[in-house]
Amino acid sequence: MTRPHPTEIPYLLAFFPSLRTASDRTLSIYFKIRSEAYDGKFYDMELKRVVEQHMHKLSEEDRRVVDREIPRVKAQLAVVRPVACPSMAAFADEPKGLLRLIRLPEETEDRLEVDPPLLAPLELMLRKYPPSLIVVVDKEQAQTFASILDEMIPQHHIDGATVKHIRSGGNKNPSLQRKEENRVKSNMAAVVRLVDREVSAVSYKRLYVAGPDEAVAELERLLPPSLKKIIAGRLSASLDLGVGELGVHLRAQLATSPAD
Questions:
Q1: Which of 42, 69, 78, 164 could form a disulfide linkage to 92, CB 3.0–4.6 angstroms apart?
Q2: Residue range(s) defining the domain that contains residue 247
Q3: How many CA atoms, within 13 angstroms, populate the side-chain half-sphere of residue 134?
């Protein structure tokens, strides 16, 4: 088995920690994803095709692992119901409690091994698609996500001080307005500290920001130069959405962004 370059593996293990539990009897399988709506029969045929393609190189013991793990992969596909990603990698090792499906940002060669997890193809993709940090803000709160390969993984949430809405025009109380503006600055400063910690910990190469223009503008103004220079763009998102729905919304937008 070709061993991947070590520099990218910490990303994989940090965001997919269950891979740390894998044994040397883990099923790794890479396969294509149906571009239309989920169809279980498609995956019955697709996984059967990949297994048959690699059956000649499997020992009897390997085949028993495949027979045990493929139904688990199919069952998880029925839960995840993947769409809008070209390929997927699955890692399954029932004795270790491991079952992890990972969406991939581009089509890859079909692979199947019973061995330690086959991470080399993921490492190669990470060189082309480095992990990105996404921060969604409004004046009072923020939510960060890690985008790695074609997965969107929620990271941290911040709730700041409540900011009262100040209507434009008409009579304003300057003291109240300054107070609310200072709360926004304080809230965004806390978000900047969070982003700085996350980028330092993971060495993200790209940063995306999303949210109402006023909050995003204040966040960008407060970012240090080291973070400003990795801003890759703005996304459209609202914290009114739940975390799961928000992640789906962000992933769909990033799917249309070209790789660096």
A1: 69
A2: 132-254
A3: 27
